[in-house]
Amino acid sequence: MIPRITIAQAGAHVGESVQIAGWLYNLRRSGKIAFPILRDGYGLMQCVAVKSALPEALFETIRNLTQESSIIVTGKIRADERAPGGFEMDVENLEVVQRVPESDPYPITPKDHGIEFLLEHRHLAIRGLRAHAILGIRHEVIKAVRDYFDSHGFTLVDTPIFTPAACEGTTTLFEVNYYEDNKAYLTQSGQLYNEATAMAFGKVYCFGPTFRAELSKTRRHLREFWMVEPEMAYATLEDVKRVAEEMLVFIVGRVLENRREELKRLERDVTRLEAIQAPFDRMTYDEAIEILHQKGSPIQWGDDFGGTDETLLTQDRQRPIMVDRFPASFKAFYFEPAADRPDVVLGVDVLAPEGYGEIVGGGQRIHDLDLLLQRIEQHKLPKEAFQWYIDLRKYGSVPHGGFGMGIERAVAWICGIEHIRETIAFPRTLYRWAP
Amino acid sequence: MIPRITIAQAGAHVGESVQIAGWLYNLRRSGKIAFPILRDGYGLMQCVAVKSALPEALFETIRNLTQESSIIVTGKIRADERAPGGFEMDVENLEVVQRVPESDPYPITPKDHGIEFLLEHRHLAIRGLRAHAILGIRHEVIKAVRDYFDSHGFTLVDTPIFTPAACEGTTTLFEVNYYEDNKAYLTQSGQLYNEATAMAFGKVYCFGPTFRAELSKTRRHLREFWMVEPEMAYATLEDVKRVAEEMLVFIVGRVLENRREELKRLERDVTRLEAIQAPFDRMTYDEAIEILHQKGSPIQWGDDFGGTDETLLTQDRQRPIMVDRFPASFKAFYFEPAADRPDVVLGVDVLAPEGYGEIVGGGQRIHDLDLLLQRIEQHKLPKEAFQWYIDLRKYGSVPHGGFGMGIERAVAWICGIEHIRETIAFPRTLYRWAP
Questions:
Q1: Which residue in B348, B273, B362 sits closest to B318, CA to CA?
Q2: CB distance B224–A389 less than 8 Å?
Q3: What's the count of helices (H) and strands (E) in chain B, helices before strands?
Q4: What are residue B179's DSSP bridge partners?
C-alpha cells in the first residue's frame, strides 16, 4: 500500500511513491505539463504532471483544477534544490475530493484584498502562507512558554474566567448574568488568584484568555487575548526580573530553532531576534525619565509612558529594556512600595525593541496586611469582595511577585508584524466578533 | 552561602545544610523536642528541633508556631526511611516571616469541615494535601494532553471565546453585551472553528475554557470548564477513535509515571489505571442497547444514555468503552450519517470505567454541502450566522472529524474522586462564582 505522508515528511521518502492529501494552492500549466502546487497544512509541494505519462482524462482534470479544490495526489518524491521545500513530486495519480466550481470560486485570490475583506473571510484567510506562518509561530511561542514554566518548577493552576470583582478598575469589564440577577465579570487577569495558588504550590502560572472591554481601537489592543501569568512565593522584584528575562530569551531561542522557515516567509530580520540575549538593559523609571528628557520627550515625572516614549527608550537598543520602580500613582493597588522610597513601587515593565513596547508587566506584591488594607481603602475598592485576597496576608504571608505577558503582543514582536489582530486565529476587536 | 532548595530537591542535598522556605503544616512537640512539619508547595518535610541544640528563645519560638505561619528553616538534610518523603531536617535556624496569631487562627483545621465551608475558603483549602494532589494531577494531565498533540503533528490554534452564535442550542448560553447593544455568547465548544483551522493546518487542537449556563447541579457539571478539542482534516470516525484511544492511554501513562505519590495520597487503586491500555472495547449503539436490555435497563432505541446506563455498560469492564453509530435524532446537526444507514451518525463516545461515564465525545462531521444545508434547515439554525461554516463545504471540503475531552471529568476519573468541583482550583457551579 502506498503510504500517506505529510509534506513535512517528504525528505524521508525520496525516491518512493507516496500519497499526500491536501488542497490546490496554485497551478501553472502548459499544453504538455502542469505544475499543481499542493498545500496540506504542513508545507507546500510542487507537483509535476506530465501529459505523456498520464491518462488523458486525468491530465485534463489536473489542468483544470481550481484553487483550494481538495485533492489527494499520488506520486514519487524527488529531491530538487530549486523547489521551495527542497522536494518535488512526480504525479502518478490524483483524486479530486471536492472541486471548487468556477461559478463560485475561492474568494481569496492572489490579488490584494482589503483588511476588512480578509477579516470577514478569516475562516479561509488562515489558509494563506502569511497567516499560516504567524499562527505557526504562535503555537511555538505558547509551547515554549509552557515548557519553560513546566521545567522550572511551576505548577499550572488555571484561574477562573468568571470573577466576582474587578482586578483593576471596572470600566473595562465585560459583565455576564451569571445566575438569575447576579453578575459575574470576565477575568482581566489571573493574578489575584495566582497569589492564592502560589501560597499552595510555591511557584505557579496560569495561562488563558483574558478580556478587556476597552473602547480603544489600536494596533495593540484586542478585546479577547491570551495571557500567561507566573507568580512566585518567597520572591522579590529581582526574581521577577530574572524569570521574565530568562523566559523571553528561551522563547525567542525556540522560535529561532524551530521556525526559521516561517520567519523567512514573514521577512523577519532574524538578527534582531538573535540579539535577544541576557542580560537585558535595566533602568529605573527615574533613569528612563532622564533619558526621555534628553531625547526631547515632554513626559513629566509621574506620567506613565506613552507609545512614543517606549519607542524613544528602545529605538537605539538591540535588547529589551527592563524599567522598574515606578511612581505609585499610576500603578495598581497591590504593588509593594520600595523600602527606601514610598513614592515608588516595585513594578517592572519589559519593553521590547523596535517600537513594540511593553510585552511584560509585573512586580512584587504587597505582603503586609495593614498596608494592603490601607491601599484597598485608598483605591476605594470593595473590601468585602477582596476579603479572600486579604486572607492571604493573614495566614502565612510572604514576599511574592510575578508578571503577565500578553501572548499576542509577544508574537507580534517576534514575527515583526504591525498589528496584533494577525497573531490570533479569530481576532475580537471593537467592531468585530465574527466569524 | 547556604543554598535555598525546595523539598523536592532534598535527595540531592543529604548531609548538607540547606534552607527551605514554606509554611508550618503541622507541629508535634514535647518539652525537649519539637517536630514542625514544613510545607513548601513541593512536598512535606519533617523538621526536628532539639531544645539542647538551639538558643532558648528560638526553641520557644518553634514550640509556639501556629498553623500556616510562614517560616524559613535552615538545617541539615538526613535520609530517614520512616519519614514521609524519605528525609528529615535537623533544625539549625528558623526565621518566622509571618506568624499567624492565636487570636485569628488559620480557619481550616485538621477537623472535618463541611464542603460549603471549604468552597467558601477555597483560596486557602487548595493548600491542603488532597487539593494539592488533585491539582498536581490536573497539571500532569494537561501537560500530557498538550505533549501528545504537539508530538503528533497537531497545531494549537486557539478558538474564540466570544462567538456570534451557538454551537449546540441556545438555552445554555452565557450572553455578553459585546459592543453597544450587540450580543456575543461565551463559547461552548471550539469545534466549528476547529473545522476551519483544520483545513488550514491539517491537524489542530484548541484547549481553553468553555461555558455552559446549565441549571443542573450534579457532581458532573461545572459552568466553566476546560476542554481540549482536536480536529483532523482527511479523517474518518476510525481515525477519531484511534486518536482518542492513543491520547487517553498516553495521559494515564504519564500520570502513573510522574504522580504515584499523589495517587497514593488519594488512595487511588492504581491497578485500575494500569489496566487502561489499547485496545479499548468497541461497540455500536445498537450493541450497547442490547447489552443494556440484558442488564435490565428500560432504555429504548433512540434514547441517549443516562448515567445509570453508562454505569451498567462499564461496570464489569477494566478498559474504557467506545460506543459509536448513534441515532441521528439526539446528536448535533453536524454529524456525518453512516453511509449504510441514514438513521445513525458517525459519532463516538468514550465511556470511562468505574461509573465515570462519558469523558470523550466526537465523531466525523458532514462534509457534503447539500447535506449540511439540509441539516441546518432541519435543526432550524440561523443560516446567515453559519455562512462561514458552510463555506468550509464549498471550498475544498474533505472528510474530517475530531473530539472533545472535558479536562475536569478526565481528572476526576484518573483521581478516582466523586465530584468534579475538586478538579479545578476555583470551581464555578450554579450558586458559586466566588472567591
A1: B273
A2: no
A3: 13, 17
A4: B182
- Alpha-carbon gap: A239 to the closest alpha carbon of chain B (Å): 13
Chain B hits for A177, CB-CB cut-off 8 Å, are 174-175
Name the DSSP class of A188.
S
Distance CA B191, CA B360 (A): 13
B395 touches B233 (CB < 8 A): no
Nearest chain A residue to B194 by CA distance is A123
Task: Map out the domains of chain A with their CATH numbers.
Answer: 7-98 (2.40.50.140), 123-423 (3.30.930.10)
Q: Which of B146, B150, B433 sits opposite A162 (nearest CB)?
A: B433
First vs last C-alpha separation in chain B: 41
Q: Is the ipTM beyond the 0.90 threshold? A: yes
**Residue B240: which of B392, B393, B398, B348 has the closest Cα?**
B348
pLDDT tens digits, one per residue of B241-288? 999 999 999 999 999 999 999 999 999 999 999 999 999 999 999 999
pTM for the model: 0.98
Sole residue written with cell 438569575: A180
Contacts with B41 from chain A: Cβ below 8 Å: 155, 198-203, 233
Do residues B281 and B322 lie in contact, with contact meaning Cβ atoms separated by under 8 Å? yes
Nearest by CB: B200 against A126, A155, A178: A126
Contact A355, A311 (CB under 8 A): yes
Q: What is the b/e burial string over A17-42, where b = at least 16 CB atoms within 10 angstroms of the residue's CB? A: ebbbbbbbbebebeeebbbbbbbbbb
What are the per-10-residue average pLDDT scores of chain A (435 residues)?
Answer: 96 97 96 97 97 98 98 97 91 98 94 92 97 98 98 98 74 90 93 98 98 88 97 98 98 98 97 98 98 96 94 93 96 96 97 94 98 95 93 98 98 97 97 93
Sign of the Cα torsion A71, A75, A78, A82 reads negative
